[in-house]
Design a protein that fits this description.
It contains 9 helices and 13 strands. It has about 350 residues and is of the alpha/beta class. α8 links the parallel β11 and β12. The radius of gyration is 20 Å and the shape is globular. The structure holds 3-amino-D-alanine. 3-amino-D-alanine binds next to α4. Its EC number is 1.2.1.11.
Length: about 350
């Protein structure tokens, strides 16, 4: 199998290299692509050096079976034809095609079968905040249909990329020396702060990030009437997003029932022992694969409501790992590559 990573030098691109190794993904040849800036850099994969090629409009994708792309929506749109024209399956981490009717938007634990319907040879990987939320919503929705979701996110710097992570470290360093922090990647200084603003604002007062949670959740869960109201906030955490979630279901669900369903759900780990100060936190979850769920309780403001706290590594399950799991799902369910 020939596999390509587009955007190999970015935070998610680098995570693809680690995840493909960790998952022992079947690869005969790995090709790395990037901008003219990153072309020529080398990275180690399975003990061998692989050089980054510049992404160009040529036939470099001939013979490629799967291309994991994470170089921004503009690049994905511009190069989709180049990447897919010889038959490569493009699993795209950007927002470019997520809401297109002829592109499936897939989280394997929730709607893996959708990955087989690819008229354009493209599968979209959802936004990180949506991925970790739907993994946790699925077992509850299986118990009783969810009618409404309220969610407040606590998103790490990693969601804004490798340079944003560096910026957060640099801000703390400068502040500790009594210097003014540099602000480039965020709207304001993130160190010692929280910023209730991720992506741009839309006409309804929500940000695009918040509307992604509304629209993508409906598409992945095949629930076109589901209401999702999100408040997305950047916090000075390096890696792993947290979310406080309140759901309303058609019938009321007990805490025990919910805990059992979460514990049995694919991709979910329950850490919920408040008496012993056990609950998921980003420091513990960074670098881990599953979505962690804790603080499970009845919502005292809604008799059909349930409230819980989830934490997932944004670069892993929220990006590279989910994309690789889509490919693994296809392989496990009979899709043939390289035939
Ligand atoms: C963020 N959700 O955290 C974005 C990344 N996709 O900024």
């Amino acid at each position: 199998m020939r596999v390509a990573i587009v955007g190999a030098s970015g935070a998610v691109g680098q995570e693809f290299l680690r995840v493909l190794e960790e998952q022992n993904f079947p690869i005969d040849e790995l090709l790395l692509f990037g901008s003219s800036r990153s072309a020529g850099r080398t990275y180690i994969f399975r003990g061998k050096e692989v050089k980054v090629k510049e992404l160009c409009h040529n036939d470099d994708f001939k013979g490629v079976d799967i291309a994991f792309t994470s170089a921004g929506a503009g690049t994905s749109k511009e190069f989709a034809e180049t990447i897919t024209k010889h038959g490569a399956l493009m699993i795209d981490n950007s927002s470019a095609f997520r809401m297109d009717d002829d592109v499936p938007l897939v989280v394997p634990e929730v709607n893996g079968q959708d990955a087989f319907d690819t008229p354009r040879g493209i599968i979209a990987n959802p936004n990180c905040t949506t991925i970790q939320m739907v993994v946790a919503l699925k077992p509850i929705n299986d118990l009783s249909k969810i009618t409404r979701v309220h969610v407040a996110t606590y998103q790490a710097a990693s969601g804004a990329g490798a340079a944003a992570m560096d910026e957060l470290v640099d801000q703390y360093a400068r502040l500790s020396r009594g210097e003014a922090p540099e602000v480039n990647k965020f709207a304001y200084q993130l160190a010692y702060n929280v910023i209730p603003h991720i992506d741009v604002f839309t006409d309804n007062g929500y940000t695009k990030e918040e509307m992604k949670m509304f629209n993508e959740t409906r598409k992945i869960m095949h629930e076109p009437a589901l209401s999702v109201s999100a408040m997305c906030v950047r916090v000075p955490v390096m890696r792993a997003h947290s979310e406080a979630v309140w759901v309303e279901t058609e019938r009321s669900i007990s805490v025990d029932e919910a805990r059992e369903a979460f514990a049995a759900a694919e991709g979910v780990v329950v850490v919920d022992d408040p008496a012993n100060k056990k609950y998921p936190m980003p420091l513990d979850v960074a670098g881990c694969d599953p979505v962690y769920v804790g603080r499970i309780r009845e919502d005292i403001a809604n008799e059909r409501g349930l409230s819980f706290w989830i934490v997932g590594d944004q670069i892993k399950k929220g990006a590279a790992l989910n994309a690789v799991q889509i490919a693994q799902y296809l392989l496990a369910h009979g899709k043939k590559f390289g035939a």
